[in-house]
Design goal:
This protein is of the alpha/beta class. The chain is 32% helix and 24% strand. It has helices at 12-23, 44-50, 65-74, 88-101, 113-125, 148-158, 225-237, and strands at 2-7, 27-33, 55-58, 78-81, 105-107, 131-138, 181-182, 188-193, 199-207, 210-218, 241-243. The strands form two sheets. Strands 2-1-3-4-5-11 form a six-stranded parallel beta sheet, with helices on both faces. Helix 3 (65-74) links the parallel strand 3 (55-58) and strand 4 (78-81).
């Protein structure tokens, strides 16, 4: 049995993950960790002192994930990271630490197989379009913007070409931020935060006389659980660093 701890266990995603771990015949939920809840571990360090943990799944907050991941890797705990908001340099640091400690680490901006396919399709389409923008829409309790999925999508598209604003005229924003944030290869990302959404993303490609939109919508957090459990199995059996669920599908 794979002994699993869940950090952020009382969050909306954390509760689903705990249930998925309990329902899986090859995993055992040995620790629920949440700083804001009584009756369970408040910190990873507390759980580590008491429980033998093979894999920790983290769905917490952007301001805590980096330190959480460092603690796990430095203490021989393999880690699956679903929390977004890590900076590029933090991801690179964790990659190096994972290699140094020979301890598995998987970071996935999105665990939905449909969302991963959207990113892969967008990377393919990027070869054929010179203009593209991304709109991501999430619930209004999401703290980081843009989403990790949008950033990962832009990074994949940027592998195809260096600029997605071909032919655009010089711009001046009369309201700052109107054009969204500018990411890799000048891809504009627009973030919407609104009650009613869980997670949605549109990647819009344009060319003379045509528009193509690739869209994915998550309507239930259960759609992420298959990917989460695949990630747990992967890091348990491997000691490598992986960024993106598409690399293990």
């Amino acid at each position: 049995m794979i002994k699993v701890a869940v950090c952020g266990a009382m969050g909306k995603m954390g509760k689903e993950v705990c249930q998925a771990v309990q329902d899986c015949p090859t995993t055992e939920l040995v620790a629920m960790i949440d700083i804001a809840s009584s009756g369970m571990y408040h910190k990873i360090e507390e759980a580590h002192r008491v429980q033998d943990i093979d894999v920790l799944i983290d769905f917490t907050q952007p301001d805590s994930i980096f330190e959480n991941a460092k603690f796990c890797l430095n203490n021989g705990i393999k880690v699956v990271i679903g929390t977004t908001g890590l900076k590029d340099e933090e991801i690179e640091y964790l990659k190096n630490l994972s290699t140094e400690k020979n301890t598995g680490c998987l970071i996935a901006p999105n665990f939905s197989t449909g969302a991963v396919l959207m990113m892969m399709f967008s990377k393919l389409a990027a070869k054929y379009f010179d203009n593209a923008e991304i709109i991501e829409l999430h619930h209004n309790q999401k703290k980081d913007a843009p989403s990790g999925t949008a950033i990962k999508t832009a990074a994949l598209m940027a592998e195809a070409k260096s600029d997605f604003t071909k032919g655009n005229c010089p711009e001046k924003e009369t309201i700052e931020g109107s054009r969204g944030g500018t990411s890799y290869s000048n891809i504009h990302i627009h973030s919407v935060r609104m009650p009613g959404y869980i997670a949605s993303q549109e990647v819009i490609f344009g060319a003379s006389g045509q528009i193509m939109t690739i869209r994915h919508d998550s309507t239930d957090r259960k759609c992420y659980m298959q990917g989460v459990m695949l990630a747990v199995e992967h890091v348990y059996n491997k000691n490598d660093f992986t960024y993106g669920l598409e690399n293990i599908l």
